[in-house]
Structure formats: C-alpha cells, structure tokens
Amino acid sequence: MQSDSKYAAPVLGALSPSIRNKVLRNTYLMLALTMIPTIAGSAIGINTDFSFLAQSPIMGSLIMLAVMVGLMFAVSATRNSIGGVILLFLFTFVAGWWLGPLLQYALQFNNGTQLIGFAAAGTGIIFFTLASVATVTRKDFGFLGNFLLTGLILVILASLVNLFLAIPAISLIISAAAILVFSGFILFDVSRIVNGGETNYVMATLGIYLSLYNLFISLIQLLLALLGERD
C-alpha cells in the first residue's frame, strides 16, 4: 500500500483479470484475518459485565453505534495506508466485543451453543454460495445498489424504532429483512471486486465484513426466536 493510484477506483472492467483476481484473493485473505480479532473480542465480550445496558439499553446501543460508525469513517480515511489495516482490525475487535450481550443471551438457552454454531455455519454457507455465484458468473450486480441502500435504511430505521417499542414480532421481521439485505450486499460487494469496481483491499474487506457480521447477528436472533429452548 504505497500509492493512492494503486487503490483508485477504475472504470468498470478496465482492470486485467489477473489484477482483479489478486484484489479478490487479498480481500479474502484480509477477511479471514479479521476473524482473529473478532473471535478474540467476542471471547472477552462473553465475560464482560454489560449490566449498564440493562440500566439504559437505548443510550448504550446508540453510543456503541456511534463508536463503530466513527471507527468505520476512520478506516475509510486511512484506507491507503497501514493505519487503515490497523484500524480495520481494531474495528473488528470492537465489533466482536459488542457481540457479547447477544452471545450471553444466547447461552441462557439450553441449545444456545448449538444455535450459535448454526448461525455461524449458516453465515458461512450463505457467503460462500453468493460469493461463488458472483465470482463464477462475473455478472454485474450493481443494479442492486439502490434497492439494497433503501432496504438498509429501512432496516436501520425499523431497528431504532423497535429499541423503544421492543415488539418481538417486529424484531423477527427486521431480522428476516436484514438477512435478505445483507445477503444482497455480499453479491453486490463481491461483484464490484470481480468486475474491477473496487480495488482497495481495506474497503472491500470492510464492506464484506459488515455484511457477514450483520448476517450472523440476524441469523442468531431469528434462530433464538424460533428454535430457542428454555427450561
């Protein structure tokens, strides 16, 4: 990562296949490496006392959202330097730590560990399936952009509203919608790399990571609601 030109967004399809394949390989490698701080963060998160959330769940969630958005902007601002990689790993560590409350809740179920495993496996299956479709077909899924952006905004707004309402049925609908939206983003992001629309490894990794992260969360929430077993 020595020059901005190396990461400048090219005209769609202008890059040679070898360069595009290199970008894809490096993105997948970095994506795999982000799992290390994510797992480390989640291990710490499981053992963290999040009692402050019980006192002010809405404020705590909004503050954490602001922190993660801030880190994402920092990653974007430093994407052409080694600082971008470091901040990306910091972001994934914090994201893993923030899984703590959800994982603690899941482990209260008799089959919580099993459902966490199912959610992780489901996330992996969805990712590899959709990434393979985008890679093998080389189809440009850019046409999904506006639809996915609209869906993302609706999911975020609905989630914020449900922080106040806390209606289980709405939570299920949001989780199901989020699975569809973030699955679509996987197609969209991998397609951009394959077709030369994204050459920055850091930003490509961040985009796919966010889709996987939210997909995992949505799957856990859906599985717990539908299959969770309590005493």
TrEMBL record:
GO cellular component: plasma membrane
GO-annotated molecular function: peptidase activity
Cellular localisation: Cell membrane
GO biological process: proteolysis
Membrane-topology annotation of the record: Multi-pass membrane protein
TM annotation in the entry: 28-46, 52-75, 82-103, 115-136, 143-161, 167-188, 200-227
PANTHER family the UniProt entry points to: BAX INHIBITOR-RELATED, MODULATOR OF FTSH PROTEASE YCCA
Protein name: Modulator of FtsH protease
Organism, as annotated: Nitrosomonas eutropha
Lineage: Bacteria, Pseudomonadati, Pseudomonadota, Betaproteobacteria, Nitrosomonadales
